[in-house]
Amino acid sequence: MKPLRMLLFATLVLCLALGVASAQTWTRLTNSPPANVGAALVLTDGTLLVHAEQQNSANWYRLTPDINGSYINGTWSQVASLPSGYAPLYFASAVLPDGRVAVEGGEYNNLQAQWTNKGAVWDPTVNAPQGQWTTVSPPSGWGNIGDAQSVILTNGQFMLANCCSKQQAIADKNYVPTWTSTGAGKFDENDEEGWTLLPGGKVLTVDAYVNSYNGTGTNSEIYDPNSGAWTTAGSTIVQLWDSANGCGGQGSASYEEGPMVLMPNGTVFANGANRCGAGHTSVYNVSAGTWTAGPDYGCSGCPSNLDTADAPAVLLTTGNVLVMTSPGVFGNGAIFFEWDGTKLNHVPGPPNAPSDSSFVGHLLMLPTGQVLFTDFSNDVEVYTPSGNVLTNLAPSALLTQAVLARGSSFTLFGYKFNGASQTVAYGDDYQAATNYPIVRITNKSSGHVFYCRTHGHSTMAVGYPGPTYTTLQVPSNMETGASYLEVVANGIPSTKYPIAIQ
How far apart are CA 1 and CA 39, in angstroms? Predict the structure, then answer.
């Protein structure tokens, strides 16, 4: 729990003069959002749903790419606000397989620390384009949800943690929801831990030892949806949660951790927080079920205590993982790295980096292969990575018809629709996985880009070759004529399939 961390956002700016590689670029959005924003999700129609942070936290905004498909030149509109009395910060979130958005809990409600058990689901098809939020009752007996983690399991069910206990629950696939308790055998409380979906459907977490303090603890756990139980996944070798062991001990421990990202090579890159020095990293080999210590954070001219306390990370289309770090636990002066599977490479940061702490950052993979960055300000940036896209991860489609009618709906079959990873990681305060298919159509003559709305995905399994399918709806305002259709998974597009819009 971090009831004082909002005050840290106003702490002294650190000015850092650092040598970095410069091939990567950051670009500010042409149009600033109407509020300071943070949590962001990619909707299945290619638009973004973005949350107002630190003020008016019941408000949400939609970022729509321009007619040429550019998010940098996109436009903002306000959608429906959350139900009365619910205005959370640091909450569980997910895009459901039917295209709706679930938001659960919050460490703050109406800017007051209370670890609320409120929740709501947003349906973009009701009262469009504003959509509609509907209140969701918590699992029976849950007084808290708080800054809880969540995950969409491979069968499409939404799994949610209670931040302040060992409880987890699963909502029915249609997210009415009817909640079912799960998670027998959990070692410690869910608080501060993140969940990473693995190939095959299991879920990995690193224990944070909240209310189970062990200054040298390094346990990790695996959840098996078939048994509904947790078992140990072994020692992470190095400590990834902040125990303050050696610099204050239990009384100084924040219990924070960093993000964990599944990579295409079948490893999970896990990041740590460390009040006593540089943050550690560790790599989990999924097939072997073993951990190997990775490098600590650091670079020439960097502070010696960089770590990833409540930090964002994202798997890039190049296969590297972009990670945001900052000094100590919630210190200002953010520094960015790309993990290439072997080493940590220091890369440029956005303009606000010197005044940012890792916990204010959010990284979101866009359908263009670029990354959206928000930091509780109205300066929203887009990161364009350098390097070659991993085309072997590209989805493919099996088109059963080459002529599509505007406003029509049909089932699209294909392969690799869910990508190799959830791609986006943070932990217990923010989840925005993008392991679902996005479909865009580009008019051959004008070059104008239109996104279809997808829903009813056959699976949410990461690293699954297929076959899979989804239902898509062709926009009614689509330009007619010769066009190209692409399926995008985690920012990586399929080949361009020639079609005609009728």
Answer: 18
Per-residue pLDDT reduced to its tens digit, 407-435: 999 999 999 999 999 999 998 999 999 99
SS3 content of the chain, % helix, strand, coil (to 5): 5, 35, 60
Residue that the structure tokens 């949800």 belong to:
145
Helix (H, G, I), strand (E, B) or coil at 369: coil
List domains and CATH numbers for the chain.
392-501 (2.60.40.10)
- Give DSSP secondary structure letters for 311-343: --EEE-TTS-EEEEEEETTT-S--EEEEE-SS-
Tokens standing for residue 339: 């993990």
Q: Map tokens 């069968």 to a residue.
A: 155
- DSSP letter assigned to residue 145: -
Q: Which of 84-98, 164-178, 346-360 has the lowest mean pLDDT?
A: 164-178
The verdict on pTM exceeding 0.85 is yes
Q: Which residues pair with 383 in a beta bridge?
A: 26, 371
In the prediction, which pLDDT does 174 show?
A: 81
Q: Binning pLDDT at 50, 70 and 90, where does residue 20 land?
A: very low
SS3 391: helix
Fill in the amino acid letter for 250. Q
C-beta of residue 107 within 8 angstroms of C-beta of residue 115 = yes
- 132-141: list long-range contacts, CB under 8 Å, 24+ apart: 132/80, 133/80, 133/81, 133/82, 133/83, 134/83, 135/83, 135/86, 136/102, 136/104, 136/175, 136/177, 138/104, 138/179, 139/167, 139/169, 139/179, 139/181, 140/179
Under 8 Å between Cβ of 280 and 240: yes
Give CA separation, 116 vs 4, 36, 87, 255, in Å: 17, 22, 10, 20
Length of the chain (residues): 502
**Which regions of 86-173 does DSSP assign to beta strands (E)?**
88-89, 92-95, 101-104, 108-109, 112-113, 119-123, 132-135, 150-152, 158-161, 168-171
Tokens matching residue 236: 């992470």
Q: Which residues fall within 8 angstroms of residue 212, CB to CB, at 6 or more apart? A: 187, 188, 189
